[in-house]
Specification:
Helices cover 38% and strands 14% of the residues. The chain folds into two domains: 3-208, 3-Layer(aba) Sandwich (Rossmann fold), CATH 3.40.50; 219-369, P-loop containing nucleotide triphosphate hydrolases (Rossmann fold). It has helices at 10-18, 26-36, 51-65, 84-97, 114-123, 132-141, 157-162, 166-173, 191-200, 231-242, 254-266, 280-291, 302-305, 325-332, 353-363, 419-423, 429-437; strands spanning 41-44, 77-80, 105-108, 127-130, 151-154, 181-186, 205-208, 219-225, 247-250, 271-274, 297-300, 315-318, 342-348, 368-369. A seven-stranded parallel sheet has the order 3-4-2-5-6-1-7, sandwiched between helices. The protein has a seven-stranded parallel sheet with strand order 10-11-9-12-13-8-14, with helices on both faces. The protein is α/β, with parallel strands linked by helices and 440 residues long. The longest helix is centred in the first third of the chain and has 15 residues, at 51-65. The radius of gyration is 22 Å and the shape is elongated. It is built from 17 helices and 14 strands. The structure holds adenosine monophosphate.
Amino acid sequence: MSFDELGLATALVRTVREQGYTTPTPIQQQAIPAILAGGDVLASAQTGTGKTAGFTLPILDRLSRAHSPGGTRPVRALILTPTRELAAQVEASTRTYGKGLPLKSMTLFGGVGMQPQIQTLRRGVDILVATPGRLLDHLGRGTVDLSRVETLVLDEADRMLDMGFIRDIRRVISSLPNERQTLLFSATFSNEIRNLAQDLLRSPTRIDVARRNTAAEAVTQIVHPVNRTGKQALLSSLIRNGDWQQVLVFTRTKHGADRLAKQLDRDGVTATAIHGNKSQGARTTALSRFHKGGVRVLVATDIAARGLDIDQLPHVVNYELPHVPEDYVHRIGRTGRAGHGGQAVSLVCVDEQGQLAGIERLLNRSITKQTVAGHEPDLAERPEPATKGRSGRSNRGGGARRGHPGGGRGGQSRSGQGSPGRRGQGPRGGYSARAKSKAA
Ligand code: AMP
């Protein structure tokens, strides 16, 4: 199948070709015609599947076909995302794909001044890409009008719920017209997502695309057992000896991310950290340095890493295993993208055996363990609680989501929406939930 067959305007097909895309991805093949036809869509898809183009291309098409006459330029498409980074990335896609079309887009997220946003909104915007908190601020002040929205997109809806945005989302939706098109994208399907979908969507087209990398077709996964205090030395040595030039490293906490980046830097391995406590400017700079090869290592928390679009990342390292097994799948989905090979390395100490077992159950396979000479773990080391000294929560999943969502207020109001559902899903959590959701 080619892009010409999907029903998109010639100008958009041309732009897509200029991007070097020859074939629509599976989600694009299914989503584009459904969205062009004006219907609702419920799609199970994560980053890396081409989902962004899957919804931005048909939205651009529909908006440009029925361009609003005269001088007014109401917001006609609203895209909600969990993080600033994802908002910026989605809006950049609308600009790229929409170049040459008479449409304006903008991002709306916290951490930057309100005033410039108000001025841009006043000049008129067709496509608004927003995080829920800041959008509500504008709604509260009456500086944005959503009464003419034709299409609403909830991108990474599961993450938005995990981050406690459900009430914010519902409040935003209450200021939209009832007659509209709604598109919901989510990597996993908890009961909360299904409830939301049931409330919001009308006879949606269901799209399920296989997760990338779940069976690790393109990704080599390996676990290096190591002492609790030996991780940083092992990481530096792996990076140096393997001559790894672009490495994304995951830590569980913001503080851990900062500390590791500093230690690596001191060790002569250039590194920078990205997380929700950093200002928007600092995060953008860190990401762009990493993109350009100015730093070898980007240390990130799970939430900060959502929405990062880095093509063909060769190495992903779990410096600490995540509490929620699904996060492991998200993390390793950052490597081996677009059919290129990648390596996902996990540094696992004696405290993390429970998390490792949970991940292996989710993957339904065991991951190869290999000690590294000179960094062998001390077999006499005894486990300590993994969250020692912080929340004291167990490693069963409930206390894992600590990163700041970066979406302004509302983000930290932990509603507990995501975790209990996941906890109840049994060993094959995300997969069985996905399978069940097909029947929903
Ligand atoms: P996404 O899942 O939207 O984050 O997209 C993942 C990556 O795939 C992005 O870097 C896109 O530029 C790229 N991409 C999207 N659609 C295609 C396509 N049809 N062919 C090749 N690459 C694509």
